[in-house]
Amino acid sequence: xxxxxxxxxxxxxxxxxxxxxxxxxxxxxxxxxxxxxxxxxxxxxxxxxxxxxxxxxxxxxxxxxxxxxxxxxxxxxxxxxxxxxxxxxxxxxxxxxxxxxxxxxxxxxxxxxxxxxxxxxxxxxxxxxxxxxxxxxxxxxxxxxxxxxxxxxxxxxxxxxxxxxxxxxxxxxxxxxxxxxxxxxxxxxxxxxxxxxxxxxxxxxxxxxxxxxxxxxxxxxxxxxxxxxxxxxxxxxxxxxxxxxxxxxxxxxxxxxxxxxxxxxxxxxxxxxxxxxxxxxxxxxxxxxxxxxxxxxxxxxxxxxxxxxxxxxxxxxxxxxxxxxxxxxxxxxxxxxxxxxxxxxxxxxxxxxxxxxxxxxxxxxxxxxxxxxxxxxxxxxxxxxx
Length: 386
Ligand SMILES: NC(=O)c1ccc[n+]([C@@H]2O[C@H](COP(=O)([O-])OP(=O)(O)OC[C@H]3O[C@@H](n4cnc5c(N)ncnc54)[C@H](O)[C@@H]3O)[C@@H](O)[C@H]2O)c1
Ligand SMILES: [Fe+2]
Fold this sequence. Notes:
Layout: E1 10-13, H1 21-27, E2 33-36, H2 39-43, H3 46-56, E3 61-64, H4 73-86, E4 90-95, H5 97-111, E5 123-124, E6 134-138, E7 150-155, E8 160-165, E9 173-176, H6 186-205, H7 211-237, H8 243-261, H9 265-277, H10 281-310, H11 320-337, H12 352-361, H13 374-382
Parallel strand pairs: 1-9, 2-3, 2-4, 4-6, 5-8, 6-9
Antiparallel strand pairs: 7-8
Helix pairs in contact: 4-5, 6-7, 6-8, 6-10, 7-8, 9-10, 9-12, 10-11, 12-13
The chain binds nicotinamide-adenine-dinucleotide and fe (ii) ion (FE2).
Fe (ii) ion binds next to helix 6 and helix 10.
């Protein structure tokens, strides 16, 4: 079977990149923007950094901001109704993964109304039309939803988070401007940055990894390892440094890779934790990352040894096994340096059967390089129990 690769049509990078947005809208002849963002970003003026530019350019826009972290089916359905009533002909997603994913789902349902229930989009949906034209502007350096063919929606009734994979949902234009991420507090910088590292390492060790995806994941592991501590320190001190710029790029490069080859058991388990305990996605990914690497090590020892080198570990004189362990230790050290918690609030033994079932049913699990049975997954969850 041929390997497929899907990326944005156009992407802009670097400080000040958002200034390109009005031109992108005008050149394509669009008349009105539907802006998807979350309430906090609106309150703290992050959304306005872009909408002020639309105002200056005389481009009308309307705002939809009923988006919660770990966005729900209702957030999507209300958004579809708001979009239909807005008279807009394109979308601008401004936010973290939650705003961008909601926007992707709204745009998909708007053009494919037979999927209005949203649940039927889970997995690989047979949509016929591309989502409404979208410019995506990330405000966190983590999910890379601006360049992926995935979005993740929560079903509160069934207490599940489900992944939708669809080449029709990728935003045409991504605008990755580190200035949009400058207001991230330290904890969010750490969590979203570790989400990006998880994408890069899971993507490098996933079943479908191949040369083209390796190229992106290896570079992303380097960029994130070199920049996350600085970005975190910068968020704490308020002093500008180069960490934010490196993280903005590193998370995007990771997205270019994993979107095309998939992830693994860490993301499958992380989605389950967020659905049950509303754990922030990046925190869930980060707590599980060394545990998932240890579990996968027998299947991907050589790959993990390469991860150690990408993370800057001096592996001179080490065998493959020792170098793989050094990669796991380097991940643990990075997590500790940016204060990621080691245990998950709310996680109790009585929930483990359900959690293991849900993780094994998650769309990310089949990408894992080593098979896990129900008891093994319970054992992995137990390692982050308080
Ligand atoms: N589509 C994909 O490929 C993909 C990949 C990974 C994760 N996800 C999904 O993305 C979601 C998580 O996204 P996220 O981690 O980016 O966080 P988020 O979008 O859920 O935002 C978390 C919080 O951070 C705040 N915030 C965002 N940017 C900020 C900024 N610049 N300054 C201050 N506050 C800011 C938001 O207002 C919000 O309260 C999850 O639902 C996850 O499953 C999607
Ligand atoms: Fe993620």
